Amino acid sequence: MKIVVTGKIPRAGLEVLKNAGFKPDAWSQDSAMSRGELLAKVAGADILVTLLTEKVDAELLEAAGSNLKAVCNVAVGYNNIDVAACKARNVLVTNTPGVLTDATADIAIALILMTTRRLAEGERVIRSQTPWQWGMHYMLGAGVMNRVLGVVGMGAIGIATARRAKVCGMSVIYHSRSEIDPKIASELSATRVSFDDLLSQSDVVSIHCPSNDSTHHLFGKAQFEKMKPTAFLVNTARGPIVDEQALVDALESKQIAGAGLDVFEFEPKINSGLLHRDDVVMLPHLGSATVETRDAMAMLAANNAVAIANNRAPLTPVG
Known about the structure:
Blueprint: E1 3-5, H1 11-19, E2 25-26, H2 35-41, E3 47-50, H3 58-64, E4 70-73, H4 83-88, E5 92-94, H5 101-116, H6 119-127, E6 148-152, H7 156-167, E7 171-175, H8 182-188, E8 191-192, H9 195-201, E9 204-207, H10 221-226, E10 232-235, H11 244-252, E11 258-261, H12 272-275, E12 280-282, H13 291-309
Parallel strand pairs: 1-2, 1-3, 3-4, 4-5, 6-7, 6-9, 7-8, 9-10, 10-11, 11-12
Helix pairs in contact: 1-13, 2-3, 5-7
């Protein structure tokens, strides 16, 4: 059984594979493989353990060959995988939901506070040794107490973010494909609203929906025009959900007040119009970046691979 790990993952994940009796062919460098290296690496694989840096499409599936049984993604999102192409070849796809919920929600709240209170801008003042003096009107931000958080995509991460926001004194509205559990809605005092109502009512909009054809550029010119000029956008989901140039234009025209981004449309490339803006906070995709979370992600992906290799049902299949 040939298990290929296409990117460097935590040792905990590799140990799961080794303890199950497998000898994974694992990429060990911090940087991602080139496309050519990747296509050569997967040849003859029975199972692939992949990262978001690898595009799993028809070309890669063809390079892997007919023995391929599964693609086990070390992420909750799987927009790097052509699921339809996998299904056509009877290749299972798994992901790692649940284990990164709290870590990502923490980053969402961090970005909310950083953007509304201008914290990154303030730190740049100190680090650059720019002269400053405390004053009643110096670098005023916006408080979150008694403000409205609009959650787009009320899954596990959206709910975890809403819980944290409530502790900060925010009220919660959400837009999602379906109603959440009534007990959770009651706990959060959360109201489900239309997308347009969420845009017009929210002081902070936090994105937590999956990235797919239906959510590509869900946020564009028309959506920013419906938001308050005092509102902030936070995205810890996937970059392509936001039309990045439309976001730049909305910030430039002061259609919205600011943005906090952990993900980018053409990651790791970033729209140059965002780079020098004080009303934007940007992080290099740190949503799940804790030791505990990354270990858990790698272990869950590895356990999916072990289950499939032993003809058992995977723990977290996609679809």
